């Protein structure tokens, strides 16, 4: 039987999520240069792996994982998010990663579900 | 309860008692009847109660016990000394005859027992997309990218989009909105999103705006919450 949390409320832990995200990014684009051909595959892999790892934690959350990969060319990039939810149970975490040729910004949103 | 007999005069009662006492083999039940007759008086006959009580005192102790038992069974209130009447009504009656106040009960909201959104109250991806597109077009038309102001612009857009969607979104839906604003240059950018949600109740939408100097991507997810 799968383990599930009942009764006590579980809140989102941004630290755990950011560690998961960093490991996923490093594993997929760590040490490679930006490539127009491969960027689709990278973004898809990053979001998929991150989501899989988060789900493996077995917490009662719905997840949204967004990833933006941009080539480094001197242009500016801004991201912002606004959420309408229960601040006691839901949370988010954003990880910014860069290497020599690209920026990678991954946002994870966790929305609690009632059990 | 049986109909109450008419009140007997004292002489009749005394005569009856004498006849009962002299009867050979007088057993318990007749004595009980004696007691029951004497006590089935309406509460209107207050003046007679004292003589009745005095009469009871002259009777042997066994009869007195029957008398007191019958007093409790017959629901006759005889002033403060006989306030047993309230016990048998099953209510909360104090010895003074006043009802005790019920404690103030907390109000508990009942479960609505809803497991999903009502039909017609789902998160509408098409309507959200229209609102998003209209908002981005109206606010970013003719805006030039500036490193100083675009971070504030990005935040303001996210809040604005959320406030507009809150008005139109159905009840019990949580909203997550993300806006990405960047300078339009010769770089490539890819924005991807993946989510774990209940497809029957939840949905998302995304909109892109671009002009000569900047681009904006807005992502909105609507998640149903019981």
Automatic annotation (TrEMBL), chain A:
Function: Acts as one of several non-catalytic accessory components of the cytoplasmic dynein 1 complex that are thought to be involved in linking dynein to cargos and to adapter proteins that regulate dynein function. Cytoplasmic dynein 1 acts as a motor for the intracellular retrograde motility of vesicles and organelles along microtubules. Probably binds BUB3 as part of transport cargo. Required for the efficient progression through mitosis.
Record family assignment: Belongs to the dynein light chain Tctex-type family.
InterPro entries: Tctex-1-like (IPR005334), Tctex-1-like_sf (IPR038586)
Subcellular location: Chromosome, Centromere, Kinetochore; Cytoplasm, Cytoskeleton; Nucleus
Gene (name only): LOC113111083
Keyword tags: Cell cycle, Cell division, Centromere, Chromosome, Cytoplasm, Cytoskeleton, Dynein, Kinetochore, Microtubule, Mitosis, Motor protein, Nitration, Nucleus, Transport
Highest classification ranks of the organism: Eukaryota, Metazoa, Chordata, Craniata, Vertebrata
Name used for this protein in its record: Dynein light chain Tctex-type 1
UniProt-listed PANTHER family: DYNEIN LIGHT CHAIN TCTEX-TYPE 3, T-COMPLEX-ASSOCIATED-TESTIS-EXPRESSED 1/ DYNEIN LIGHT CHAIN
Top-level lineage group: Eukaryota
A molecular-function term among this protein's GO annotations: dynein intermediate chain binding
Subunit structure: Homodimer. The cytoplasmic dynein 1 complex consists of two catalytic heavy chains (HCs) and a number of non-catalytic subunits presented by intermediate chains (ICs), light intermediate chains (LICs) and light chains (LCs); the composition seems to vary in respect to the IC, LIC and LC composition. The heavy chain homodimer serves as a scaffold for the probable homodimeric assembly of the respective non-catalytic subunits. The ICs and LICs bind directly to the HC dimer and the LCs assemble on the IC dimer. DYNLT1 and DYNLT3 compete for association with dynein IC (DYNC1I1 or DYNC1I2).
UniProt-listed GO biological process terms: cell division; microtubule-based movement
TrEMBL record, chain B:
Gene3D superfamilies: Tctex-1 (3.30.1140.40)
InterPro entries registered for this protein in UniProt: Tctex-1-like, Tctex-1-like_sf
Record's compositionally biased regions (Polar residues): 1-20
Molecular function GO labels: dynein intermediate chain binding
Gene Ontology terms describing biological process: microtubule-based movement
Source organism, top-level taxon: Eukaryota
Gene Ontology CC annotation, any one: cytoplasmic dynein complex
Region described as Disordered: spans on this chain: 1-52
PANTHER family, A to Z: DYNEIN LIGHT CHAIN TCTEX-TYPE 4, T-COMPLEX-ASSOCIATED-TESTIS-EXPRESSED 1/ DYNEIN LIGHT CHAIN
UniProt family annotation: Belongs to the dynein light chain Tctex-type family.
Protein name listed in UniProt: Tctex1 domain-containing protein 4-like
Taxonomic classification: Eukaryota, Metazoa, Chordata, Craniata, Vertebrata
Gene: LOC113111059
